[in-house]
Amino acid sequence: MFVGAFHYVVVAKIKRPILPLSFFQRDPLICARELVGTELAWGKCSGILVETEAYLTLNDEACHTFTRPSTRAFVERNAAGTVYIYMNYGVHWMLNVLVKGAARSGLILIRALEPRRGVSIMRARRGVDEVHRLCSGPGKLAQALDISKRHHEMNVCADPRYCFMPAGLDAPVVADPRIGISRARDFPWRFTLAGSPFVSVPVRLANVRKPLTATKSARTFHAQ
Q1: Cα–Cα distance measured from residue 61 to residue 57, given in angstroms and rounded to the nearest whole number
Q2: Rounded distance, CA 59 to CA 128, Å?
Q3: Element holding 139 (H helix, E strand)
Q4: 218 located within any domain
Q5: Are 85 and 97 in contact (CB under 8 A)?
Q6: Which helix (H) or strand (E) holds 162?
Q7: In 3D, which of 212, 170, 174, 220 has the Cα closest to residue 193?
């Protein structure tokens, strides 16, 4: 569980902490797991994070760093908490966050949210009314939040309009194999909020693996 110090922002007249740089300076699997259950604020919209995937920057064939020198250069020049945006198959933008500072670095793909604030804005952007379908996948999420290349290399620890915040949840998190990739598919590095109807693809019980981190649930974070 993360026990570092927080910065604070005001949301709906309530003062709330945001996840600081030190949160993203830990092991990628721990960060990906503990991001589940936090709230992502993006402009006038926000949602509870219900699904992430971890990708290691070294020796992970599914990570962009394995084949793209430009991504390796991005990791080298940027600090932890920096946003990595790319377009998937020329259609959908994908939101990732750089984790860097521990023994190994990684990129965390933000895969799905449970919408909280700005639902009407998300519906207009997506052209979809059903709330469960607004952010149930990384491409849908990016469209609903109006994420694009203009957000590339911004830092989620520096701007309170674009940040992660503790949400006060304490729900089980499930680890299962990553999806939508053709290589390194067996690593159980997709993390989902157990039982959430907002995930991109429901967890198949046969695929659930023993978690590779010591964290057992999405925690309530407390300022130190």
Answers
A1: 9
A2: 39
A3: helix 138-145
A4: no
A5: no
A6: strand 162-165
A7: 174
The residue among 213, 132, 137 whose CA lies nearest residue 179 is: 137
Per-residue model confidence as pLDDT tens digits over 57-69: 999 989 999 999 9
User: What is the C-alpha to C-alpha distance for residues 126 and 150, in angstroms, rounded to an integer?
Assistant: 19
Q: Which residue is listed with tokens 């649930």?
A: 217
CATH code assigned at 107: 3.10.300.10
Residues 203, 211 contacting (CB under 8 angstroms): no
- The residue with greater pLDDT, 17 or 148, is 148
Residues spanned by the domain of 14: 7-207
- Cα–Cα distance list, 128 to 45, 81, 146, 166, 195 (Å): 16, 31, 14, 28, 23
User: What's the CA gap between 176 and 111, in Å, rounded?
Assistant: 14
Alpha helices in 69-137 (DSSP H): 69-77, 119-126
> CA 111, CA 96: separation in Å to the nearest integer?
9
Is 212 within a domain? no
Alpha carbons 8 and 165: distance in angstroms, whole number: 9
Nearest CA to 84 among 76, 92, 75? 75
164, two tokens: 């992660």
Number of domains present in the structure of the chain: 1
Q: Residue 1: inside a domain, yes or no? A: no
Per the domain annotation, does 214 fall within a domain? no
pLDDT higher than 90, residue 55: yes
Q: Which of 31, 38, 18 is nearest to 159 (CA)?
A: 18
